[in-house]
User: Which sequence fits this backbone?
């Protein structure tokens, strides 16, 4: 395990395993060939062609298309073709970044839909260096139970602004009021694309830094986080460098934090590979 | 002119105009086809084949190869095939990052050799926000005379460490002593590849932030810089966004600075394109 290993883990996928997902003549995603085959066995709504899987009966209207897709997803869920539905909806973007319809967050990977999220590095500056607030995910969570996590992190659902969502997540996950959340500074992005159990996950994460004074601490406010601890940034680096204790994508956002703050410097043998790897090129589809 | 325009300007090149530069079976660069043709008219040392321009008489030994190349460069300079020689030497790296020989800094673009440099954002934190120290290049400089520039910036010659070179440049360009230079914090890289008059320039710039107290100012120490001024970061952003007053690559390093410090945020319509564009993928050769 090394810093670079985490970047490789988050960017592992084989283009040959996937085919384009085409709706209304636009390539909107990438579907695993095996899943595309399963979908087309059900009937005539989805058809495979040379250039990919076509949803041939997709309504042209945004809302009608979103509703029709949700009905299909419910059917796939009943038939066990997908693992579950989440309830939160993500926009399906075309190559120009325009939303074409909405898709359940848990279904998006089956169609290789890019998801957007926000991760917040909560840190404290002390005389002996930087400290990072680290959360531990509840054992009851479906994704990465018990793993270490950012102080605040979440997906970006449809129709909520970045600022609004960050405030909401800061309150729900760390009991930090809006006045504190609004001090968070956007500091760039991390992007990757990975083959997961459910399909392809091309993710873009908006990264934020939030410097906290010594007298303000995050506090568990829902059942998603089990506990918080404040660790020296050098100790967090050691954990990332030598283990998979953190949820997969947190490793990348932390590496970005450590590079921006000079804790990983150009003397690191993988410095250039890390810097390029944190913002891997968009996947084929988008 | 927009922020994104600067990134496009620094990444403009047409792969069809170039062919690989091959030495000892290794692809080490990219040569403009026209220049490759001119080189092969002189004799038998350089030969064009299907897979690129081969330096067929290159010695295997590192020093001997560097010397032999320098002799060729002197000849091309006399014959007016190249614009000039600089005197400082850059390493020519193979795909694995191993140095294969040394090449004059001014000749490197003719062979599409990746150059490495360092840019330092000198900034001051005041109650009303961040200020950036901006230099103006002398009218007498060969490259970008009279353009705005970073407080400190320079190429990375062979055999000098990053820390050593930064100290040297801080002293030469801004009269800042080593004790101040050593406070500079590495904050990542910017990478681009551009077609220039002389050939292809794939550049990787190591970026640094140096926070200065209000009572320490840079001071012109050689004839490379004409003057320094301290500008609000928002004013620097306006200049970059609306003009080409800065030397080309400075625009990219400043955009990176503004993104890391939250002055360009995700509400900017080009945020994702900017973030990806600052670290464009390595050129074909390397």
Assistant:
């Amino acid at each position: 395990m090394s810093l670079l290993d985490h970047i490789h883990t988050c960017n592992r996928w084989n283009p040959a395993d996937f085919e384009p997902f085409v709706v209304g003549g636009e390539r909107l995603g990438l579907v695993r060939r095996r899943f595309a085959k399963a979908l087309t066995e059900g009937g005539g709504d989805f058809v495979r062609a040379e250039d990919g899987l076509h949803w041939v009966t997709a309504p042209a209207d945004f809302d009608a298309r979103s509703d029709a897709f949700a009905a299909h997803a419910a059917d796939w869920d009943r038939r066990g073709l997908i693992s579950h539905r989440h309830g939160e909806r993500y926009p399906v973007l075309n190559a120009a970044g325009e939303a074409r319809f909405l898709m359940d967050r848990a279904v998006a990977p089956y169609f290789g839909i890019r998801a957007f999220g926000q991760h917040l590095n909560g840190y404290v500056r002390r005389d002996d260096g930087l400290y990072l607030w680290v959360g531990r995910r509840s054992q009851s969570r479906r994704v990465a139970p018990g793993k270490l996590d950012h102080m605040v992190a979440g997906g970006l659902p449809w129709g909520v602004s970045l600022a609004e969502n960050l405030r909401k997540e800061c309150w729900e996950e760390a009991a930090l009021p809006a006045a504190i959340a609004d001090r968070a500074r956007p500091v760039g992005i991390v992007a990757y694309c990975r083959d997961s159990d459910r399909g392809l996950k091309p993710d873009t994460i908006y990264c934020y830094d939030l410097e906290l004074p010594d007298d303000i601490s995050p506090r568990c406010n829902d059942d998603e986080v089990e506990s918080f601890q404040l660790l020296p940034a050098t100790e967090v680096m050691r954990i990332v460098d030598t283990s998979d204790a953190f949820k997969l994508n947190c490793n990348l956002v932390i590496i970005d934090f450590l590079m921006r703050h000079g804790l990983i410097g150009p003397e690191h043998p993988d410095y250039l590979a890390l810097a390029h790897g944190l913002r891997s090129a968009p996947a084929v589809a988008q």
Observations:
- Residues 3-11+115-280 of chain A form a domain with the Nucleoside Triphosphate Pyrophosphohydrolase fold (CATH 3.90.79.10).
- The helical segments of chain A are 3-10, 33-40, 62-78, 162-174, 178-181, 233-242, 248-260, 271-277.
- The mean pLDDT of chain A is 94.
- The first strand of chain A starts at residue 18 and ends at 23.
